[in-house]
């Protein structure tokens, strides 16, 4: 499948934070392996003057998604902590203004970058119609951001060479991919983008 980028496109990089990388509080296996490819996508979008949005999990202490507070996860991505920072190898253009924090209130969780954020408004303001999604975790925040975007009317492309999942229950990643496809998401690789060299 060949895809030509247009001025209606935006890149969404999901949760590339230290706590989701090997050695972090809630590691996604090989989560760091996709960083070079993500950086290539960011540079491609940057070169074309297209917006790049970075979501981050940004939880208060004792967040509802944490064990002992109603959830299933070890504490992770607590606001202001080292683990909540983006991985140091992730390329973020110096002038980038689009950091989207989610899961920021104690009593709500958000697996979608659209949930409780201004991401949809920022995309609409810029006339964006197609979103290109990469990052972690395939079976949680990538899936929910992609489907959330589809529900809001965006055409979604999942960058299959730049996602990793957790697979808490074996098969979760495969099911997530099937679910996104059933909802109309297209899966593409960097070679599918016209002008990629
Ligand atoms: C995520 C589990 C808990 C994710 C966030 O970014 O996919 N997963 N919080
Ligand atoms: Zn979380």
Main beta sheet, described?
A: 6 strands, parallel
Structural class of the secondary elements? Answer: alpha/beta
Taken from the alpha-carbon principal axes, the silhouette is globular
pLDDT average, as an integer?
Answer: 97
- Taking strands numbered 1, 2, ... along the chain, how are they ordered across the largest sheet? 3-2-1-4-5-6
Q: Beta-strand percentage?
A: 15-25%
Helix amount, in percent? 10-25%
How many helical elements?
4
Name the poorly predicted regions.
none
Terminal-residue CA separation: 16 Å
Rounded to an integer in angstroms, the radius of gyration calculated over CA atoms is 16 Å
Q: Could you state the order of secondary-structure elements as H and E?
A: EHEEHEHEHE
What is the number of E strands?
6
Bound molecules: pyrazine-2-carboxylic acid, zinc ion
Give a description of the structure.
By secondary structure, this protein is of the alpha/beta class. The chain contains 4 helices and 6 strands; from the N terminus they run E-H-E-E-H-E-H-E-H-E. It has helices at residues 35-47, 119-125, 138-151, 172-182, and strands at residues 9-14, 52-57, 99-102, 130-136, 155-164, 186-188. The chain has a 6-stranded parallel β-sheet with strand order 3-2-1-4-5-6, sandwiched between helices. Helix 3 packs parallel to helix 4 (172-182). The longest helix is centred in the C-terminal third of the chain and has 14 residues, at 138-151. The chain is globular. The structure holds pyrazine-2-carboxylic acid and zinc ion. Residues 15, 20, 57, 65, 73, 136-137, 140-141 line the site of pyrazine-2-carboxylic acid (VGL).
């Amino acid at each position: 499948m060949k895809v030509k980028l247009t001025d209606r496109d935006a890149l969404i990089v999901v949760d590339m934070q230290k706590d989701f990388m090997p050695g972090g509080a809630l590691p996604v296996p090989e989560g760091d392996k996709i960083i070079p490819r993500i950086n290539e996508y960011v540079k491609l979008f940057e070169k074309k003057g297209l917006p790049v949005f970075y979501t981050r999990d940004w939880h208060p202490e004792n967040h509802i998604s944490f064990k002992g507070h109603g959830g299933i996860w070890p504490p992770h991505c607590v606001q202001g902590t080292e683990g909540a920072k983006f991985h140091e190898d992730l390329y973020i253009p110096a002038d980038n203004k689009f950091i989207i924090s989610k899961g920021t209130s104690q009593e709500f969780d958000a697996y979608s970058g659209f949930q409780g954020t201004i991401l949809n408004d920022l995309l609409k303001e810029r006339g964006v119609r197609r979103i290109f999604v990469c990052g972690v975790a395939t079976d949680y925040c990538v899936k929910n951001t992609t489907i959330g975007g589809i529900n809001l009317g965006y055409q979604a492309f999942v960058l299959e060479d730049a996602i990793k999942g957790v697979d808490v229950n074996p098969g979760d990643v495969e099911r997530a991919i099937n679910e996104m496809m059933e909802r109309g998401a297209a899966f593409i690789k960097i070679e599918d983008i016209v002008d990629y060299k």
